[in-house]
Design brief:
homodimer; 6-stranded parallel sheet; Rossmann fold; 4-stranded parallel sheet; globular; alpha/beta
Chain lengths: ~260, ~260
């Protein structure tokens, strides 16, 4: 048993999909969530900058005395996870491995597609992770940089969004993929449109997968929190929390807690 | 005469349109440009954060011993200009006033439209500035948050861009505007599409207007640099300069100089 909290960080609010899955699956755990809203998005920035920001985020969460860090941001997981593990002693989990493993389990024809930010796709992290679980899998990727701004604007079912999504997914048809990994925490909100465009493809949502990984790790090491401990989770952002407090409810539903602004 | 340089900052690379206009109009001036690429964009962030970043950018440029600061970013001009002027002794010019004055000079029917980021439009800064020059002008505004990501992706003439632009401009038709202010340094790259959608409207590009303002101020105060001084301009970014060095050429053309990375 370990009553310390779980630290989660993301470049912004997309990682709240991860926080919510963990809170649902592990209701006794206390969550400390940090959204780096003042410096988001990470997806268009370079490795060096993403590593610097990720280290600062991790250092902040460590001050909350957590037992584990979850990197909810795909871009940070893709570009900074190794450096974080080198620098910090604590267990640090990224979203990429969980999504990759789930895709390998789901695929039948071993042909897997991945969409993500420009930085995530350019890193090759999903291809490496999927190949680690199944060296014979064929992986096809597509950078989809306009999807994050579209989701942040709430353009979830507009005809322009559908057209842009069709543009990004067009290459997967001829490759006959049967599984598509949503390599960014914003994309699950576009699942209805994606299912409309590719109805036969299994869609992997990494938020749920990472929650399963966290639970498995905590249980294997007997590090879960005491039942009914009921300590309140806390949320932090680096920009003023107005936007968090507006859209957070939509992501978190009954788990909604108002965020506090912090300086890193 | 004053051989000190001119400091220019922007949230990213859009302000290079301003730098280029100034370099063309005032070829003897030495420019120090700072693009805060690690923390861009500013347009979706809050006043408090935009003020903090703008003060840090200004403080950096002051160390270059400049005679004037140009805030090339519309969002920072709209939300932080007053605070910068309060905090720093030096002359600080924002892009909003220049664009507003040009719009008032251009309009015949006194009906002016403005597009900008969410933060710029919400600030009301263009409406206030235009009303200052002509209290009887009618000003209509439209926040156009998806245009910056579309321009940054180079989607300058795609059908999706045209459709999204038509969406943002739709409200101006019934208002019978004859002048449209491009309230963001990225938007001039969409001018061909805008002219296609609204062929009869005069489009105000604030980059050119701010260059005229800078020249007028320097000449009025006898603060121009010595002819043929020929000191090299310098460019700085907060993220690694690869993207700057790739797209900077496109913005700056013959004035292109490679950027250095700095920490603020």
């Amino acid at each position: 048993m370990d009553n310390k909290g779980i630290g989660i960080f993301d470049s912004g609010l997309g990682g709240l999909t991860v926080a919510k899955e963990i809170m649902e699956m592990l209701p006794d755990e206390q969550i400390f969530y940090l959204g780096d809203t003042a410096r988001m998005p990470y997806g268009s920035k370079t490795k060096e900058t993403i590593i610097k920001f990720s280290k600062e985020n991790t250092a902040f969460l460590l001050k909350k005395n957590v037992k584990m860090i979850v990197v909810a941001c795909n871009t940070a997981s893709a570009l900074a996870l190794k450096e974080l593990k080198n620098e910090f002693e604590i267990d640090i989990i990224g979203v990429i491995e969980a999504g990759a493993r789930a895709a390998v389990e789901a695929t039948v024809n071993r042909r897997i597609g991945v969409i993500g930010t420009r930085a995530t796709i350019a890193s090759g992290a999903y291809v490496d992770a999927i190949k680690k679980y199944d060296s014979r899998a064929k992986v096809f990727t597509s950078a989809a940089p306009l999807l994050v701004p579209l989701v942040e604007e709430g353009w979830l079912s507009n005809k322009e969004t559908e057209s842009i999504l069709r543009h990004y997914l067009a290459g997967f048809g001829p490759k006959k993929i049967d599984t598509l990994v949503l390599g960014c925490t914003h994309y699950p909100l576009l699942k209805p449109l994606i299912k409309k465009i590719m109805p036969k493809v299994t869609v992997i949502d990494s938020a749920r997968e990472i929650a399963r990984t966290v639970r498995a790790m905590l249980e294997a090491r007997d590090m879960t929190a005491k039942k009914g401990a009921g300590r309140k989770s806390e949320f932090f952002v680096t920009d003023t929390p107005a936007q968090f407090n507006k859209v957070g409810r939509f992501f978190l539903k009954k788990f909604m807690v108002e965020a506090k602004k912090v300086r890193l």
